[in-house]
Hints:
The protein is an alpha+beta fold. It is built from 11 helices and 14 strands. The strands form 3 sheets. A 6-stranded antiparallel beta sheet has the order 1-2-3-10-9-8. Strands 4-5-7-6 form a 4-stranded antiparallel beta sheet, with helices on one face. The protein has a 4-stranded antiparallel beta sheet with strand order 11-12-14-13. Helix 4 crosses helix 7 and helix 9 packs across helix 11.
Amino acid sequence: xxxxxxEEARDCASRHGLNPCPECGAxxxxxxxxxxLNSGVMVQSVNLSKRMGFIESDILDxxxxxxxxxxxxxIEERVxxxxxxxxxxxxxxxxxxxxxxxxxxxxxxxxxxxxxxAGTGQLNGNGKYEILEVxxxxxxxxYTLTTISEPFSLPFxxxxxxxxxxxxxxxxxxxxxxxxxxxLYEIKVYVSEHDHSLEGCLPVKEYRHRDGGVxxxxxxxxxxxxxxxxxxxxxxxxxIVNERTGRRLKIADPCVHDLLYEELEKEFGxxxxxxxxxxxxxxxxxxxxxxxxxxxxxDFRTQLALRGMGNLREMKISxxxxxxxxxxxxxxxxxxxxAQGFFEAVYNLESRVEWRISPQGDLDLEIRPL
Length: 370
């Protein structure tokens, strides 16, 4: 993936109507839609109990494959189902019942809401969507055919498409997808019963605010954190790039993977958390991430809070041990695995890790050499 300059990113955003901030480059819609709290948490401005955040998306599909390899069972279908159920919960709150009724009764064109969802997805870094065909007659032959280029995660994108169809039609759907050219995929969503017993939505845990003392320096023009100037929006591709690392980001609920791993644990048992930690550790040890990205404690605290991933309370690292505490931690198994991987890579040793997550989402972890 090419790394855009700040000027190129601003020009691109302007051409696609995102109205980037003249100082930090954040799209006006992002500044209007999200709020960064002093607890290391990012929330929707219209719903302060709904967490959002910037998640690393380059790692997602390789991560799902690695977890499946360790479990000896592919998990992509489970990923798509969690994405489906999570999307149901999200859009049932965003799209009013009256609007959904108008869509089902064809008072409103279903393409209208489809294009809205696609545009929102592109702003959030999902990839670029194009709706090719829609059959919506209210019977068992209905389907939607879309393409997506540069998807942030193919199974997750398919699950989102299924959830969007289900929230409008109130009928169960499935999806198939195929690659039609490099990094361009066709997704067909059609009426069909689910293969699993995972029915209904997947309720998102509401965030309850606790003051945390995290003060991010703000852009005087739009109010976003100044550090967001490192994130570059390429809306014609539906891509967000972290200029600091060259990797791709996506705006999403950062706790969605916690939900996914809870579902996997129900199916595969109590070994799942250790499996997820091991998968993340392997990526860190193999150099997907760099320990240099962490910087000092204050920089790491800022980067976590900027992404909405939590409030770093403590970080002590030496060859003898690493002790980390993060309040309001999201995707906490990822944090545990990456911390262990960095520790082992820096000191070139094997280690053991122990962690505890409180009911409030506060993470304590300790890493020691074997």
